[in-house]
Amino acid sequence: MDEGRNMILLFPTLITRINTKDGREAFKPRCHMFYPQRVVDFPGDGVVKWAGLDHSSDLVDDHGNILVKYGGRRAEDKDKERE
Predict the structure, then answer these.
(1) Other C-beta atoms within 10 Å of 23: how many?
(2) How far apart are CA 47 and CA 62, in angstroms?
(3) Residue 43 clears pLDDT 60, i.e. is over it
(4) pTM, full prediction
(5) Number of domains making up the chain
């Protein structure tokens, strides 16, 4: 468990009703971290991919290529500056 990042490592089969629509939605991934070191590709899944920790590293595409270089600020803030 990591209280600072609100994360837990848990086997999905231990969660009651995980195979229901609501259960799948509750555990839907919000991002892929350390994507360049992946073992499995997730192209076209629509989930944001990061080179390291989310919002603290380069934003990468489905192939691990850098889209937005991390410059000490959140990538979301950089997106707002471009608008």
Answers:
(1) 14
(2) 9
(3) yes
(4) 0.64
(5) 1
What is the distance in angstroms between the CA of the first residue and the CA of the last residue of the chain?
Answer: 38
Domain containing 60 equals: 30-82
Does residue 63 lie in a domain region?
yes
Please check whether residue 60 is in contact with residue 37, taking contact to mean a CB–CB distance below 8 angstroms.
Answer: no
Looking at the domain assignment, is residue 46 inside a domain?
A: yes
Type and span of the H or E element at 82: helix 75-82
Task: Decide which of 9 and 57 is more confident.
Answer: 57
Secondary structure (DSSP) of 20-81: SHHHHHHT---EESSGGG-SS--TTS--EEESSSTTSS-EE-TTS-EEE---SS-HHHHHHH
